[in-house]
Amino acid sequence: MMEPVYTTISAILLFWHAAWERLIGSTEALGTSWAWVLGIVFLVLTVRLALFPVIVRQVRSQRATQRIQPQVKALQEKHKGDRETLQKELAALFQREKVSPFAQFVPMLVQIPVVIGLLHVLRHLRPEVTSEASRTLYGWTLTQFDSAINAQLFTAPITAGFTTGDLVVKLVAAVLIAVMTVTTYLTTRQMISKSGWAVDEPARTIQRLMLYGLPLSLLISGALFPIGVVLYWVTQNVFALAQQAWILRRYPVIKPPAQGRAGGESRAQGRAGGESRAQGRAEGESRAQGRAGGESRAQGRAGDKSKSISRTPVAPPKVGAKPSSKRKNQRYEGSPAR
């Protein structure tokens, strides 16, 4: 079933190997079989460029689905208990907006067999394959197969891996595995930085697994792959990183507008509430200071009056002077009756 895919992948690899061999010959500068190394690199580039229109179609479908998500949620809330009506309304919405909920998965299904074919062909190139029937599978000749399994990258055989080679093989494999891991992390981080972290915890957990778990798994599994396969992954990741940067610039991620506005309004209300509370505290302090100032002024006036009274001299009574009638009456009224 997959044999046509394997044969196509092999034909592309052999085409690029022959093209580079005619261009640069059988040069092995720096201990590298450049015709085979560049053949693997351009095999990945050819497949990725062939899949590029499919990937763009997938991204467009994803953006269209993101665009109508507010309407989908509104219909789900409106027809929460009526599943049949909800399905009819959703179908009408998809038809009106020309959006297919399954269109974004079709390109992914096309890519899966191609990626499997790439890995299978590269892993098939190993010295353990000794029978003539196996070596001539997928359109290979014995000469081409022998040349491929003896190819080197910086004196390290591309069929060897981190766990099966000597020190040089381990160093070359370690560098490629590190580049593969870092580029995988950067690709996922680039997407999250544009789309933002998910609001709900399950989706956020998936994002964390993609950001940290996937690079970690490649770091471990990369030690089991031959150098030729790791070279494929490095080329694939570098191309995917550049491709995703272009796609995110050409088709930016549509963020939910309701959440953004609600968050902005709540933050604005929070700032307004903080400012009003600050103004209230300032007004309360100013009123308290006014009351304190009024009390201090009242105390000052009372002190001034008491000082003025204490400074007023009282004239002593004159010697021999008769008391006035008023003072007499006061004395008579105040004296007890005899």
- Hey, roughly how much beta strand do the residues contain? under 5%
The count of β-strands is 2
Task: Please state the CA-atom Rg, rounded to the nearest Å.
Answer: 44 Å
Gross geometry: elongated
Largest sheet: 2 strands, antiparallel
| Termini Cα gap | 144 Å
Helix proportion of residues, in percent? over 70%
Strand line-up in the sheet with most strands: 1-2
Mean pLDDT: 79
Uncertain regions spanning at least 5 consecutive residues: 258-270, 324-338
Continuous helix count: 12
Structural class: mainly alpha
Query: In sequence order, what are the helices and strands, one letter per element?
Result: HHHHHHHEEHHHHH
Summarize the structure.
With 338 residues, this protein is an all-alpha fold. The chain is built from twelve helices and two strands.
Quick tags:
single chain; 338 residues; mainly alpha; two-stranded antiparallel sheet; 12 helices; 74% helix; 1% strand; disordered C terminus
Describe the structure.
The protein has 338 residues and is mainly alpha-helical. 74% of the residues lie in helices and 1% in strands. It has twelve helices and two strands, in the order αααααααββααααα. The protein has helices at residues 3-24, 34-67, 69-78, 83-97, 106-124, 132-135, 142-149, 167-195, 201-221, 227-250, 257-311, 325-334; strands at 152-153, 156-157. Strands 1-2 form a two-stranded antiparallel sheet. A hairpin with a 2-residue loop joins strand 1 and strand 2. Helix 1 (3-24) crosses helix 2, helix 2 (34-67) packs parallel to helix 10 (227-250) and helix 8 (167-195) runs antiparallel to helix 9 (201-221). The radius of gyration is 44 Å and the shape is elongated. Residues 258-270 and 324-338 have low confidence and may be disordered.
